[in-house]
């Protein structure tokens, strides 16, 4: 089976460390997903992820609790984040996610099993979910 070459442009060693971490994490996500759990996450300085809010709580809960190859409904994520009646607010949090893929908002789907909306478009969301499902099956 052909392996996909994942390379970053020359001069990568001169990147600031958070950018190196981000690059390493994304490379692993697409090429060696089993290793993402052992990599350090880059420091997130986005104001949305700093100030105390339900959106921040939802995004960190998603990052921490919904693993590669899993999916969660808006309602389930609201539950996990501490407010079972806030499914619509979870949708708002997903729309304002400053770092999609790393904070995996593509894993949040409708209770019906329908994939639901995605800022990057329907095809991208379905591709990411399918990528994770296939990679998880390969590892099993």
From TrEMBL:
* Cofactor(s) the protein needs: Zn(2+)
* Pfam families given in the database record: DNA_binding_1
| E.C. number | 2.1.1.63
Listed under catalytic activity are: a 4-O-methyl-thymidine in DNA + L-cysteinyl-[protein] = a thymidine in DNA + S-methyl-L-cysteinyl-[protein]; a 6-O-methyl-2'-deoxyguanosine in DNA + L-cysteinyl-[protein] = S-methyl-L-cysteinyl-[protein] + a 2'-deoxyguanosine in DNA
GO BP: DNA repair; methylation
User: Where found, per UniProt?
Assistant: Nucleus
* Origin superkingdom: Eukaryota
Supply one GO CC term from the record: nucleoplasm
* Sequence ranges assigned to domain Methylated-DNA-[protein]-cysteine S-methyltransferase DNA binding in this UniProt record: 56-133
One Gene Ontology MF term: methylated-DNA-[protein]-cysteine S-methyltransferase activity
What InterPro entries has UniProt attached to this entry?
MethylDNA_cys_MeTrfase_AS, MethylDNA_cys_MeTrfase_DNA-bd, MethylDNA_cys_MeTrfase_DNAb, MGMT_N_sf, WH-like_DNA-bd_sf
Recorded hits in PROSITE patterns, A to Z, give:
MGMT
| Coiled coil region boundaries | none
Enzyme kind, highest EC tier:
transferase
Query: Which keywords accompany this UniProt record?
Result: DNA damage, DNA repair, DNA-binding, Metal-binding, Methyltransferase, Nucleus, Phosphoprotein, Transferase, Zinc
Provide the family line: Belongs to the MGMT family.
Role, per record: Involved in the cellular defense against the biological effects of O6-methylguanine (O6-MeG) and O4-methylthymine (O4-MeT) in DNA. Repairs the methylated nucleobase in DNA by stoichiometrically transferring the methyl group to a cysteine residue in the enzyme. This is a suicide reaction: the enzyme is irreversibly inactivated.
Q: What is this protein called?
A: Methylated-DNA--protein-cysteine methyltransferase
